[in-house]
Amino acid sequence: MSHVHPHIPSGGGSQASQLRVSVSELHDGPLRRELKVTPTALDLSDSTYRFPFDVELDLTFGMIHDQVYMKGRATTVALTECVRCLGEARVELVAHVDVVYEKNAELLSVESQALGDADGSLAYFNGEEILFASQIRESLMVELPEMPHCSEDCKGLCSSCGSNLNQGPCGCASAESESTSDDCSSQSWQDALRKLKLD
Asked: Within 13 Å of residue 81, how many CA atoms lie on the same side as its CB?
């Protein structure tokens, strides 16, 4: 039975060196790495999201024949605009990482090692070391919601005056009329249903 050997890089090493694993380190069994890296180190960027916080990684690497696997989790917080109230939305990202690396001695560049299948579960390495920043980045990017909210119960903006209804009622006549209209529609529906039952 193999044991997982803990391995936590020192803070003095460069982040680029922390985002790679030498295959020779895996010959004695699975290797665990707990890291905290900057979004810049992962080239983490998006047109609508900001990434001001570090990314925490808890990863385990191991070998099965000529394949290397990486399993674990990547977490961070992204900031963007709430689609309802246009205020700031904090989105907690938790990406579950599960990647298999196939050996290909011809793939020597960082760009080549980023190649893999469409969902990121297969990647390639040059036989000597694993460069895993690309797979971590992709695993986080797919977790970004298309319709982010500041909270599940966000009330949005008043359709008339544009006030943020999370901060309290705006007092608009349109808001009151919409509420009255909804009540009337509900009452009309109930009256119609009652009439059908009587008929």
From this structure: 7
Q: How is residue 7 written in tokens?
A: 């391995």
**How many degrees, rounded to 5, is the angle at CA 34 between CA 107 and CA 57?**
70
Weakest-pLDDT range from 53-57, 76-80, 191-195: 191-195
User: Which pLDDT tens digit goes with each residue over 119-164?
Assistant: 458 888 877 889 999 999 999 999 999 999 999 999 999 999 999 9
pTM for the model: 0.71
Closest to 49 (Cα-Cα) out of 167, 174, 162, 143: 143
User: Residue 144: exposed, middle, or buried by beta-carbon count in 10 A (0-12, 13-18, 19+)?
Assistant: middle
Residues 6+ apart with CB under 8 A from 21: 31, 33, 61, 68, 129, 130, 132
What is the C-alpha to C-alpha distance for residues 146 and 137, in angstroms, rounded to an integer? 17
85 and 157 in contact (C-beta within 8 Å)? yes
3-state SS, 15-54, equals HHHHCEEEHHHHCCCCEEEEEEECCCCCCCCCCCCECCCC
Range from 42-51, 80-89, 166-175 carrying the lowest mean pLDDT: 166-175
